[in-house]
Design goal:
single chain, nine-stranded mixed beta sheet, alpha+beta, OB fold (Dihydrolipoamide Acetyltransferase, E2P), 9 strands, Phage-associated protein, 189 residues, 16% helix, elongated
Length: 189
Amino acid sequence: MTNTQNTTKVITGKARASFVHLLEPDAFEGQDPKYSVMLLIPKTDKATLTKIKSAQKAAAEAGKSSKFNGKLPANLKTTLRDGDEEMDTEERPEFKGMMFINVSSKTKPGIVDAQLNEIMDASEIYSGMYVRASINFYAYNTAGNKGISAGLNNVQKVADGDFLGGRSKAEDDFDDWEDDSDDDEDLFD
C-alpha cells in the first residue's frame, strides 16, 4: 500500500463507529438512501488527523477550478468536527476528546475483520465497534454550499466495543436459566 502526497484518500487509524448504516442504506428526509457511518477519531491520533487535513487540502485544490471557479472560498466547509465543542459530552460521553466525521456512499462498502475476512454476520456490525475506514475526500458546490466532504470506500472492524445508544448484548442482560417452577403449578392462582 503506497501513501502518496496530495492524495484525497485516507486510511484511518482505529476509530469508533457511531450511527452505523453499513448493511442497509438509510436516508434523511428528502435525500437518497446511502450507506454511512460516523467515525469518532481520538484527538491523540495525530497521524490520522494530519492525513485527513492533508486530504482535505488536496480535495480543495483539485476542486478549485471545477467547483470553486478558480478560487478557494473563504468559508469553505469541512466535515471534520470537534466532539468537545459540538456535542454535549455529559449526555454523549463517547464524543469527549474526539474529532468526528460523517462518511457515506451510495454503494455498499466492503466490510472485513482484522484478518481481512469478509464479515457476513450482521450482528458483528453495530454502533460502538472499533474500525479503520478507507475514505476519499472531494470538493462540492451545491445550492450555494461550498466545501469538502468525504465518501466511504471500505471498513475494517478491528475490535468490539460497548454498544452506543443504550443497546446491550443479550449475554450481558441475562444469566443462565434454570426452570425451578413446577410445571403443573398455575402462576395466576
